[in-house]
From TrEMBL:
It comes from Lentithecium fluviatile CBS 122367. Residues 1-18 form the signal peptide. It comes from the Eukaryota. Pfam families: DUF1996. PANTHER family: DUF1996 DOMAIN-CONTAINING PROTEIN, PTHR43662. Residues 33-283 form the DUF1996 domain. This is DUF1996 domain-containing protein. The keyword Signal applies.
Length: 343
């Protein structure tokens, strides 16, 4: 099934399936990373963050920080989780950097800062049955996927499904790549971040924030591959879609003369191989499991929901780090230098 059909289903309303798909407005963009570098102000590189407003530099897991939120920028108003990724910059020919803004997926227009679309899937995205039983995450659960140091295709191959889609229009979903798109993408560049789906059932986190999770032992989540004995608990597949609005940067005259592409992650990766994402679970009580156990689709999944206007009221968290992160910078915040792709 293709995207056009999914869009059709969304337009029709509520088929009897359970796939959770919703938008979150941007909470804040700054150099904080309570998962990888808790307490470090500023953190090494810039992130864009959505979700509950208790997000801060430390987020001590023993304190169930998301539970302290008084609002969320996500459409499900009982989802105080935090979801974040790095930020994309455009490097101009004269060497200056400008932050690339985001826009929302079609149908979610008006979300502050574009934000991101979040999915919790029981079965592959285009399987409308979504019938498999999955276990929701527990309070204190966190995870990370990707490798900020990956600069080669081989290094990126350790992870499945961290991709880019060069968008010709709002509905483009074809030809995902693991490197940044090499051509001009008229509508923008979508990054898709899909997390592993097998949990060890014990640890809420691990030193590298990944070892407590695993990919299926054979096949993939999409092919219904079984979880390994070491990580026997099948969870939903969490996926982020972030659309980088590259439209103001699409004049080929502004692109590097050597034919390379001009975008670079906030930590200095111009290859795209270091695509990564961070997740801190924060759904209230059993709200997530209840929805996963209900036959529902997208935002027709019951639970408590709020309008985009109300999501936006929670956006604009007061920043902890006072620095310019956007306009024509002489260097990336944190001083990262783009390194050439290694082959
Ligand atoms: C984060 O919030 C928690 C709970 O409110 C608080 O104890 C902690 O000091 C805060 N950390 C920072 C760096 O503001
Ligand atoms: C660098 O190039 C950008 C894009 O062409 C331009 O907007 C900016 O003013 C230039 N900055 C400097 C310092 O030349
Ligand atoms: C996707 O890739 C195929 C095969 O290379 C190509 O024919 C097609 O035009 C591509 N589609 C888009 C939207 O780029």
């Amino acid at each position: 099934m293709h995207w056009t059909t999914l869009t059709g289903l969304l337009a029709l309303g509520a088929p009897a399936t359970a796939l959770i798909r919703f938008q979150c407005s941007q909470l804040v963009v700054e150099r904080l990373d309570p998962l990888v570098t808790p307490g470090e102000v500023p953190s090494p590189h810039v992130h864009q963050i959505v979700g509950g407003n208790s997000f801060n530099a430390t987020m001590d897991p023993s304190k169930d920080m998301p539970g302290e939120s008084t609002c969320t920028t996500c459409q499900f108003s009982e989802d105080f989780s935090n979801y974040w990724t790095a930020v994309l910059y455009f490097k101009a020919r004269n060497g200056t950097y400008k932050r690339v803004p985001q826009h929302s997926n079609a149908g979610f227009e008006g979300a502050t800062g574009g934000g991101m679309t979040v999915y919790y899937m029981q079965d592959p995205l285009y399987d409308t049955k979504q019938a498999s039983k999955v276990t929701a995450f527990k309070p204190g659960f966190r995870m990370f996927v990707g490798d900020v140091n990956a600069r080669t295709k081989q290094e990126a191959a350790r992870f499945r499904q961290l991709t880019y889609t060069c968008m010709d229009n709002a509905g483009s979903r074809e030809n995902e790549t693991v490197a940044f798109p090499a051509r001009v993408c008229p509508y923008g560049i979508m990054t898709s971040v899909r997390f592993p789906t097998c949990w060890d059932g014990v640890n809420l986190d691990s030193p590298n924030h990944m070892a407590h999770m695993s990919y299926p032992e054979s096949g993939t989540f999409e092919s219904g591959g079984p979880c390994p004995a070491s990580h026997p608990v099948r969870t939903s597949q969490v996926m982020y879609e972030v659309i980088w609005d590259t439209r103001q940067f699409n004049d080929p005259a502004d692109w590097p003369a050597d034919g390379s592409q001009p975008f670079v992650w906030s930590f200095g990766d111009p290859s795209g191989y270091a695509n990564h994402g961070d997740y801190v679970f924060g759904w209230k009580d059993n709200a997530l499991q209840n929805i996963l156990d209900t036959k529902c689709y997208a935002t027709s999944c019951g639970g408590k929901q709020q309008s985009i206007a109300d999501m936006n009221k929670c956006a604009g968290l007061k920043k902890t780090v006072d620095e310019d992160i956007g306009e024509r910078l002489q260097q990336l915040p944190g001083g990262h230098m783009p390194e050439p792709e290694r082959r």
